[in-house]
């Protein structure tokens, strides 16, 4: 619905796009991923594109490591729990694009 979507197969791929200058209005990032987790990906986004960091939102199914549980506590307002409805996703996108 009016959004262009780019799907990365890994955090490293997405970070490469961001470091290469790709522009994104919103970043949706899973917390639990193979390789780099969402917390580490977010830290990298903060260092390479701080203006984008405030428009990152996280998704999780709830199976979190102790490290990610701590991250969850400090970023509660930025986390959506799966399964997520299309209405909830639209609300997140709307709120984050308004933050630009």
Count of extended strands:
3
Read across the widest sheet, the strand sequence of neighbours is 1-2-3
Number of helices: 5
Low-confidence stretches: none
**Helical content class:** 40-55%
Shape: globular
Give the class from helix and strand content and strand pairing.
alpha/beta
The major β-sheet equals:
3 strands, parallel
Structural Rg: 13 Å
Q: Indicate the mean pLDDT.
A: 94
Pattern of helices and strands: HEHHEHEH
Q: How big a fraction of the residues is strand?
A: 5-15%
Span of the ends, CA to CA: 19 Å
Descriptive notes:
- The structure is a single chain.
- It is built from 5 helices and 3 strands, in the order H-E-H-H-E-H-E-H.
- It has helices at residues 11-19, 38-48, 50-53, 66-74, 86-98; strands spanning 27-30, 56-60, 79-81.
- Strand 2 (56-60), helix 4 and strand 3 form a beta-alpha-beta unit.
- The two termini are 19 Å apart.
Summary, kept brief:
The protein has 100 residues and is α/β, with parallel strands linked by helices.
List keywords for this structure.
single chain, 100 residues, alpha/beta, three-stranded parallel β-sheet, 5 helices, 3 strands, 12% strand, globular
Layout of helices and strands:
Elements: H1 11-19, E1 27-30, H2 38-48, H3 50-53, E2 56-60, H4 66-74, E3 79-81, H5 86-98
Parallel strand pairs: 1-2, 2-3
